Amino acid sequence: MMTLWLILTLAALLWYSSVTIYVSYKGASDIREMLARLKQRSPTSDDVKE
Amino acid sequence: MTHFHWLLDGGIIGLYLLVTMAAGIAMRRYVGSLEDYLVAGREMNLHLGIASLAATEFGIITCMYTAQAGYTQGFSGAMPGICQALAMALIGITGFCIKPLRQAGAMTLPEMFEKRFGRNVRWLSGVVIVMGGLLNMGVFLQIGGKFLCTVAGFDLSNLTLIMAALLLMVVVYTVLGGMLSVLVTDFLQFVVMSAGLLVVSMLVLKNVGWDTLVKTVQTHHGVGGFNPLANPSLGWAFLINQFIANAAAALTWQAVIVRILSAKDSQTSQRIYTRTSFFFVCRFLLPGIWGIAALATLGWAPLKQISDAERAAIPASVQEKIAASPAGAPLAGLSAAETAQVPPDTQAKLADASLLAMPRFLSVFLPAGLMGLLIAAMLAADMSTNSSYMLSWGSVIYNDILAPFRRRAWTDRRAILWNRCIVALIGLYLLVFGLFYHIEGNVWSYLLLTGSIYLSSMSVLLIACCYWKRANNWGAIGGILLGAAVPVAHLTLEKLPSTSALAASIGKDVAGIAAFVGAAIGMVVGSLLKPQSRISS
């Protein structure tokens, strides 16, 4: 049981480190793309008319 | 004495806050429609979804209760995270419920229910979701404030000020930019939070050492610290409740499913679930190790939590029993008469001993500089959770509870204004609730119980809505009423002095499972009772 927790702890550290680096890089491009699409698609809040 | 350094650590925290606030507020100009405000125009892609979901589902409160679980239950305290990861992975792989949910194109769960169960069910679902969600979220601010006070070495009398400052920052950018601000700040917060979590965890393992952690768990918890089934405070009821409740949360928790609803398509939403699933193991296990390290380093000394004057007010024999109590349960060995000899305020402080052990440990364990990173990480975690939760419950209030009052469609500008006001009011509620409510016992169990007010009924309604043709509005109302009645009754019993012993003997896990069973019975019986003629009409 102790070995299982040790393996799980090491797996958690390894997986989380890799995901943090990968998602930090890819997430930034996701934001840029999302904002570009929103800018193209709709008027800004200042332009919204009643 | 804390290692918090005002210039170095304060500078790191100030820089983090400045960047987050600027990014959050800048999103305001991209909000053109209600859909942009509530679900980011459904333009969210995979990696942003993963960052946002992970950041939302890890707040200071998460760190506090998972560390408390490690402190009081050893490694077995991480089992809820494993249950949650399994549930998320299964749902992500199969698309169970979340695929039809995304394809329905609704902005909230009750909106989807209206198509199948009618307007009344939509309204009632909205009320139940908001009631359960706000009760659940009500304690976030108080616990976040306690963590920050303890780690930075501030007196707990500053709690109100810390809570108000935390809240104000989050409310400002959430009110202005809605889901777009939430997503962008979530991303920044994910990076900072993850860096802090990883660095602190590695430092704990390096300096405290794995062998010391294992030995501490063995000494204080025995086999039960490694095997949840051998732990008297866990067992099968706990595990079953964890799996069911976590699966239900993955299906219906508005703050979670808003990522499904904001995703580009149903395939993206499934991938967000699958790829985030293992994060839920990390979110329980890593802070859990901090909790075990706190026990290893500081030991279990509940009487140190109270002042000399408060200690002197407790009879010596009672003090001896408190000192010899098992880790995390200072009043466990006392009879009712002995417990009555401990003033209520002192009882509350003693009960907080396991909750505050981890921040106390970190305040002396981390060097200056890393302390700033930790606090920035925890602020990031808390702000992302609070902003997302406020927007989630606000969207249900606007979209579903206020729906009957909108006879004609509102303009986007008016709708966004209303949503902004609702989010601001939720912020005010959080401050008031956080000031006056005190949690009894384990924080995670409280969260699960208050969450099950709606998790039980809403998950049953969603499953029936997606996969049972015979389900109808009678069943939906039966499911909502029975599902909410059980946890509300249990919370009430717990708060009344005359029935608190009964509530304790039932236990939060059994009450949680009973809520799901009740909701399912309500749905099946109600649906079958409705005459076929009325269904066809």
Question: Which key terms come to mind for this protein?
Answer:
heterodimer, A: 50 residues, mainly alpha, 80% helix, 0% strand, rod-shaped, disordered C terminus, B: 537 residues, 77% helix, globular
Please give a structural write-up.
The complex is a heterodimer of chains A (50) and B (537). Chain A is mostly helical. Chain A is 80% helix and 0% strand. Chain B has 537 residues and is mainly alpha-helical. Chain B has helices spanning 8-26, 34-39, 46-56, 60-73, 79-94, 98-104, 109-117, 119-137, 140-152, 159-207, 210-221, 235-252, 254-262, 266-276, 279-298, 308-312, 316-323, 336-340, 344-351, 353-365, 370-401, 412-436, 443-467, 473-495, 500-506, 508-529, 532-536. In chain B, helix 5 (79-94) packs antiparallel against helix 15, helix 7 (109-117) packs parallel to helix 23 (443-467) and helix 24 (473-495) runs antiparallel to helix 26 (508-529). Classes of the chains: A mainly alpha (50), B mainly alpha (537). At the A-B interface, helix 1 of A face helix 3, helix 10, helix 15 and helix 22 of B.
- Strand count of chain A: 0
Profile the largest sheet of chain B: none
User: Would you tell me the overall average pLDDT of chain A?
Assistant: 83
Tell me the greatest interface: A-B, 39 and 50 residues
What is the overall shape of chain B?
A: globular
Please give the share of residues in helix of chain B.
Answer: over 70%
- Kindly name the structural category of chain B: mainly alpha
Point out poorly predicted stretches of chain B.
none
Shape of chain A: rod-shaped
Strand content of chain A: under 5%
Task: Give the count of helical stretches of chain B.
Answer: 27
Helix content of chain A: over 70%
Overall structural class of chain A, as computed from helix and strand content, comes to mainly alpha
The main pleated sheet of chain A reads as: none
Instruction: Give the amount of beta strand of chain B, in percent.
Output: under 5%
Q: Mind telling me the C-alpha Rg of chain A?
A: 21 Å
